Amino acid sequence: MPKFEGRLEVLSISAVHQHPDNIREDLGDLTQLAAELKTIGLISPLVVYPHPTRAGDFVVQDGNRRRAAAVLAGLTEVPCVVLPEPTRGAKADVEAMLTTGRNHRLLSEAEVSHGVQTLLDLGLDVTTIGKKLKMSRTEIKARAKLAERKDELAHAFTTGTTSLDVVQRLYELEEKSGDSELYERTVKNLPDNADLDQVEKVIVTTEAKVLGERNRAELNELGAEEAPMHAPWAKSTWEEITDELGFAEHHEAGHKYYFDYQSAVPRWFLEKEAPEPVPAPEPSAEEIADREEQIRLTQALATLSGVRTKSVVRRLQDRQQVRDTDAREIMAKRILSFEDDSRDELIGMIIANPPVDGADMDGDEFEAADAKWRGNALKFLVKLPLANLVVIHELLEFEPVELDNLAGFLRSTVERERYGYKRPWQTRNFNFYGLLVNQLGYQLDSAEVEAMEYCAKLEPGRNHELDFLDFTGLGGACQSCGTEPFEPTGATICTGCAADEGEDS
Description:
By secondary structure, the protein is α/β, with parallel strands linked by helices. The protein has helices spanning 31-40, 64-73, 90-103, 109-121, 126-133, 137-149, 152-158, 164-177, 180-189, 196-222, 247-252, 285-317, 324-336, 341-351, 363-381, 386-397, 425-440, 446-457, 495-500; strands spanning 7-12, 16-17, 46-50, 58-62, 77-82, 238-241, 256-258, 267-271. 19% of the residues are buried.
């Protein structure tokens, strides 16, 4: 047995250096390990030896990843086993790295779940465990169930054929529905390596199947009759009953039930009395088959609709799901979709490439040249930061109108016939200035400030939410009670306040 020549010391982390020839090229994500070290400290000491060129410093032989995580966690000291400098040089270092690196084994998912359950059994609450292990409450509860139950779902998770988020969703289904049969059948119907979209679809279809079977059993117990396949569209001989009645009430009234494809709830029909004893023509086999196909597709699409919505919502909640490049391309295409001359002119200024002037072109020539310009514009725009693209889109959305004259600053309720314009301040220009000032740091010119103030004065009873600047004191509100709007006509208080004070306003 080789003699152990090391000694245990607590060293300043600044004196412990990562091995310059560490064979582990990628240390990986250190976030979780750093959080662990910050919580419970470094339990497994680093193995170090004296630095060959820096007196008093050390080189890590084993534990480079733990050292990097300790730095990330903000530790200032670390426990170390200090060995003599290797007599075999780099050979000994590489051998140590290979040995420990290959022998380290992560806990299996089952072992993690067992550990969580053990902590709960020892009296730790969910909140404390979550803080220490950086786990959500949902994950802790799911892992505890996995360790406790060891059912088919737990086996699938342990063997790697089901992910933790799927386990959490299925345990949530069991808890909220309180229906063990629904849970068990959903687990049984689940394909290996199913993602959440597939899980949601299996849940919806299994729910419908379980409820449908239970409803059919109840109908059979009542002795209710089933309507023929063609009842829903043979309107001349069958009438659909839409009254909200129980199964027993429908049965007593002589109604017959009908289940659409994959539907859990029956529809009810009543056979009409023919006015003449002439039987209505029965639909052909082809018509019945076509109708069945329509019903099947309609029900399948209806089922998928809810699953698709949940899938979209989950992806939007996932910060890593939508790539920045995809989002920039979407916004760039939106910017180019306006296809308006004045907006294209602004885009041309932004990309330093003016839009096509088709004055001397025929239709086909202009269309080809414009398509080329838009392609080049798209290539330029997708390279801009996403925030810039959002602001550009909003600027185009709120394209200013008549800001080169006073009409562009008029409020929506002011009537001034001499301007003869629909006053775009409320619909466009107010928001346009918000983007300029708040997002792009534009400094208002004195002429713009005066124009805003002038138009605010024209409307004593104005909506103050449309005051881009603070125009307090311009009128429009009683200086005594604050009532607005009112027509001051030179007075500073409203008629009511003037009467109370004995003044003639």
